[in-house]
């Protein structure tokens, strides 16, 4: 089962998001160029969350647009929501083109109405084993976030992933203080559900 170590930070402002983005570009140019392990993408994503039967598991249908190309996948994942750098286990099924609307109907019939729909603009940077996401989430008064996922190889531990995360955060100018202040242990799903109350 694929695993990653991840952290999510709330950013104080759009200006801070842009500052981190500039630091990411600098780090990529200095530390990784001309490596083939670096690239970036701008994505529009919509995640439709459902209540799964298994406790502690989240289920979402992700619909994504990248350079005018649409893709859809069903993702189930489990992770502890107790620490800032969390271990996540996940399974993912790619859907054939234009199956998302039919899958929404099937999931709605089987599991009921979606819990919440999360729409976000995501700029993804790839830095070695890390995927760095700069997210702007629709429907939130303070919508700017940094998320980093370190994809773990089979022999790599969560502790190794945590160290890799710390190194990436340092290379893009995120201090321990900013990490501790901005880290949160819930998904966008929980943030939007809480905003409804």
Report on this model:
- The protein has an eight-stranded antiparallel β-barrel with strand order 1-5-4-3-2-6-7-8, surrounded by five helices.
- It has five helices and eight strands.
- Strand 6 (116-127) and strand 7 form a beta hairpin.
- The protein has one domain (3-196): Hypothetical Protein Pfu-838710-001 (Beta Barrel).
- By secondary structure, the protein is of the alpha+beta class.
- The longest helix is centred in the N-terminal third of the chain and has 19 residues, at 14-32.
- The protein is globular, with a radius of gyration of 17 Å.
- Helix content is 31%, strand content 40%.
Tell me the count of domains.
1
Count of discrete alpha- or pi-helical segments spanning 4 or more residues? 5
User: H/E series, N to C?
Assistant: EHEEEEHEEEHHH
Largest sheet data: 8 strands, antiparallel, barrel
Kindly provide the radius of gyration, computed on alpha-carbon positions and rounded to a whole number of angstroms.
17 Å
Uncertain regions spanning at least 5 consecutive residues: none
Relevant CATH superfamily: Hypothetical Protein Pfu-838710-001
- Overall body shape: globular
| The CATH C-level class name | Mainly Beta
Mean pLDDT: 88
- How is the largest sheet built, in terms of strand order? 1-5-4-3-2-6-7-8
Distance between the termini: 35 Å
Percent in helix: 25-40%
Classification by helices and strands: alpha+beta
């Amino acid at each position: 089962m694929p695993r990653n170590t991840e952290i999510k930070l709330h950013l104080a402002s759009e200006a801070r998001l842009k500052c981190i983005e500039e630091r990411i570009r600098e780090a990529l140019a200095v530390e990784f160029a001309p490596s083939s392990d670096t690239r970036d993408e701008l994505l529009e994503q919509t995640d439709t969350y459902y209540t799964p039967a298994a406790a502690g598991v989240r289920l979402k249908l992700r619909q994504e647009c990248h350079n005018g190309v649409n893709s859809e996948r069903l993702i189930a994942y489990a992770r502890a929501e107790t620490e800032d750098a969390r271990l996540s286990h996940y399974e993912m099924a790619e859907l054939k083109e234009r199956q998302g609307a039919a899958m929404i109907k099937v999931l709605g019939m089987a599991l009921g109405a979606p819990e919440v729909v999360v729409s976000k603009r995501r700029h993804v940077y790839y830095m070695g084993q890390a995927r760095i996401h700069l997210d702007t989430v629709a429907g939130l008064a303070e919508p700017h976030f940094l998320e980093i996922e370190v994809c773990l190889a089979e022999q790599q531990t969560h502790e190794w992933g945590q160290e890799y995360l710390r190194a990436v955060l340092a290379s893009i100018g995120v201090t321990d203080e900013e990490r501790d202040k901005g880290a949160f242990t819930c998904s966008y799903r929980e943030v939007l559900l809480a905003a409804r109350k």
